Amino acid sequence: MTAAGPPADPMNEKTAGIIRRVEEFISRKDDALAIPRDAGEFIHALLLATRAKRALEIGTSYGYSGLWIASALRRNGGILVTIDMERRKHDVAAKYFADAELADCVRLETGIALEVIERLEGHFDFVLVDADKENCIRYVEAIEGKLSSRSIVLTDNTLTHAEQLADYLDWIRNHNAFKSASIPIGNGMEMSVKV
Predict the structure, then answer these.
(1) Which of 143, 17, 4, 136 is nearest to 71 (CA)?
(2) How many domains does the structure of the chain reveal?
(3) How many Å from the N-terminal Cα to the C-terminal Cα in the chain?
(4) Which of 146, 156, 141, 154 shows the shortest CA–CA distance to 180?
(5) Phi, then psi, of 83 in degrees rounded to 5
(6) Which structural domain range is residue 158 located in?
(7) How far from 132 is each of 114, 157, 181, CA to CA, in Å?
(8) What is the CATH number for 73?
(9) Is residue 84 part of a domain?
């Protein structure tokens, strides 16, 4: 009887290699506001488990979290819409998505997030809110009508920016359209499920 090998990695080696490359890149940047690796792994697994097909990311930066999201969405047959207001960051992120062979399942939108959200059509199964903390309530209010039942809104930095997010957390945890829970992974995340 032979011992079973390790389970197959749901992420292909090319994408995993690009993620490692981006980790090296952002380690040298002081404006790379990226999630930690454990948060990326959690998001990737969450999207695979829920079979999400349409995702929205508010705050692309250099594309690190987007790689984790898009890799799962590729397996699910879905697409990521990712928003950032800086064209230079989107240009870098676009190259990483292309190198990871994920460009066909990523749509980059450059501009003010609230304005972009307003013109987006269709519903989203998953939203990552990882932009300016003072606008988190406004972002969720803007996207709420585009969420399906059981859609997930994941808000980053609840541990590292607890004071800045205090009003948001109080609001989302008492919102009758969401069931919300704290996830102590990475920089801390709030997972809010549309009910």
Answers:
(1) 17
(2) 1
(3) 48
(4) 154
(5) -115, 135
(6) 13-24+35-194
(7) 12, 10, 21
(8) 3.40.50.150
(9) yes
Q: How far is CA 54 from CA 5, 49, 80, 87, 104, in A?
A: 33, 14, 6, 23, 13
What gap in Å lies between CA 54 and CA 28, rounded to an integer? Answer: 32
Nearest to 171 by CA among 149, 139, 125: 139
Distances (CA, A) of 31 to 28, 62, 159: 9, 9, 19
Does residue 1 surpass a pLDDT of 80? no
* Residues 91, 108: Cα–Cα separation, whole Å: 9
CB 43 within 8 A of CB 68: yes
In a domain, 8, yes or no: no
Reported as a single tens digit per residue, the pLDDT across 129-171 is: 999 999 999 999 999 999 999 999 999 999 999 999 999 999 9
Closest Cα partner for 114 from 143, 93, 86, 144?
143
Euclidean distance between CA atoms 112 and 91, whole angstroms: 16
